[in-house]
Amino acid sequence: MQPKNFQFGGGAAGTVLHPLVAGGMVIAIVLILLLPRNKAITPFLVAFLTIPLGQVLVVGNVHLLMHQVLILTVLARMAAFRGKGRFAGGFNTLDVLVVLWSLSAFIIFSLAWMQVQAVIKSAGDLVVSLGGYLAVRFLIPDRATVQRSIKALAVVCVIQGAFMVSEQFTYVNVFSTFGANPPTLREGHIRAEGAMGNLWGGALAGILIPLFVGLWSEGRSFRIAACAGLAGATAMVFATYASTSWLAYGSSLLALGFWPLRRRMRLARWGLIGILVGLHLVMHGPVWSLIEKIDLTGGSSSYHRYMLVDNCIRHFADWWLLGSKTYGDWGFVMFDVCNQFILTGLRGGLLTLLIYIGIYKESFGAIGIARKRVQGDRKQEWFFWCIASALFTTVVASFGIYFSVHLFVCFASLLAGISVATLEGRRARVRAQPVPAELQSASYEKTTDVLFDKMREASRYQPF
């Protein structure tokens, strides 16, 4: 049975494209194709994150979002690329996990439904998830481009923040002209929407806070962009008046605040696990019922989010293999799966969910190793800590939202930045290793002899 409020097929009968969006798309596509690769990320991100989902190009029977057109443009440039280093550092473990996650979701969802329309829908999702990741991975080849990407995100936050604050006074969403939703009213408070939607725009802004803080420490030339990004992101978060957005903002600050404990995070993690296990043993309900206690605005649907987790655990046998098509019948409004982890499992089964969790594990592990390699260089350590804080906030926000098209590419950009930053962290560590004095002016034969002597001497003290 198909879940309530969920259908395949349909959509706009013809192209829905505002002239201003069409003009902006032409400019963005030209810049993406003609600018140097390390600068093309700016028009890509700015255009991608400021165009609402309502803009659709219909070619024959194929519906293409403007975001998919942008992704396909980058993929076309990547296919035509003839130089070396299409992906910085080569295809790494994180890249493999993202590919497996996307393909697993596509295959399992298609097998579960066995409908042509379902396959088409899943193929569109694949363009966004896998195509979007490969696009930003190609466009971010070095550390400087990571910084440029954060600057582009700061521009997006300034634009979105200004218009979302204006919604609080005018009750008009400028982006509604381009297909975005008008602002809503809950518990007497206006919830701004912007181009990306209420929850998604606010969550995105909360996730970006640590990156803007990290950009500040990169030098004076970056501080204007960092301040603008922080101001814009803060405005977006509070204009949404949503608990998920505020929780993301608070999680960013909390993660940054753990900086003094950076060398004792193993103890912190095990301590957190111990606390959760202890609470589970003494609470009247399960430990995940703590989710329903979170209500920062007075109008949160935290009970619904708790019931999503609870029903997913109770109905594990229904979805672990090929996902579930009947989760809408599990309870009241259960078709509204505002939890990225649960949605991943319900649409892709346990395998897809485990791969998705593996992406976070690999990312945190890579950042941790890179931070230890540059230990002693506080600027470099802080940069990695800010990236890890943004990733942590993504995890927290994922318990209150599912990934929209905008958030998919934001998440992909963060993962691509992690791949590049950790790679350059390893290189910096290698360059920092002093060359022994006896090797600086030695011949090849003497160098080899000295190295082997050092290896033999070191091996005497290594346990077997």
Features:
464 residues, mainly alpha, two-stranded antiparallel sheet, two-stranded antiparallel ribbon, disordered C terminus
Short description:
By secondary structure, this protein is mainly alpha-helical.
Q: What do these coordinates show?
A:
The chain has 464 residues and is mainly alpha-helical. The protein has one domain. It has a two-stranded antiparallel ribbon. Strand 3 and strand 4 form a beta hairpin. Helix 3 crosses helix 5. The longest helix is centred in the C-terminal third of the chain and has 34 residues. The C terminus is likely disordered.
Please render the helix and strand layout as text.
Blueprint: H1 19-34, H2 41-50, E1 56-59, E2 62-65, H3 66-80, H4 93-113, H5 116-139, H6 143-170, E3 184-186, E4 189-191, H7 198-216, H8 223-240, H9 243-257, H10 265-282, H11 302-314, H12 316-319, H13 340-373, H14 378-397, H15 405-432, H16 437-440, H17 444-459
Antiparallel strand pairs: 1-2, 3-4
Helix pairs in contact: 1-2, 1-3, 2-6, 3-5, 4-5, 4-13, 5-15, 6-7, 6-8, 7-8, 7-9, 7-14, 9-14, 13-14, 13-15, 14-15
